[in-house]
Request: fold
Amino acid sequence: MLYGIISDIHGNLEAGIVVKEFLQRKGVEKILILGDIIGYGVNPEECIDVFDSMDVVFVKGNHEEAIITGDFDIFTTDAKISIEWTDKHFSSIYREKISEWKEVVEIDNLVLCHGGLIEPLYFYTNTRLKAKKTFEQFKFRYCFIGHTHFPMAFCISEGQDMPSIIAQEPDGSLHIILEEDKRYIINTGSVGQPRDGNPNACCGLFDSEKNIFELHRLRYPVEITAKKILDAGLPSSLASRISRGI
Reply:
């Protein structure tokens, strides 16, 4: 099966549309979204609608959890302002939808969560040591995550003490041939707010028959998204960071 695997759209409708159209052209059979569709950007409901009509699995992220619980104190200043804005512009129908999303989903031989299995909503799997702890505590073949907004992968073989890192190509993409004797944690980066210095949207493809994962970087009209953020009265830093990929 060919999966589209994406994360952290963050209310960025322009990026979401470009990614959806790319996945449709590639002929994906199922889309897996690893949380944080909302937050930061000004089109939270529309970003859900873009994918809701497709064969899609939604995983809950920390921004969805915040809207459900009303607890915004964990966020930085700009993130708190944006989630408060989202809270005011998010209807009860969509609240019901996101409340049904699970923190961890297993489908075929894939495990999906937002941050990391140790703490699915909030854990940052961004070092070899954190990846090692995850590999030691949980049994899985492939685990797909987001949350850090930084695409990368970790892999480990039986008997290997410390996981290896699979880093991005210079253009921000990834191409991984998944080996039978290894286990993997793969971060698919962010659709709507990459933070690896590359503003182009991240879009993952996983071919379960060929055991190949590819991360593509897609241009989208970032200036439109940035203007929407400014027009909504949200912090200018949120508009600036998507333009620079930070």
Notes: The chain has eight helices and twelve strands.
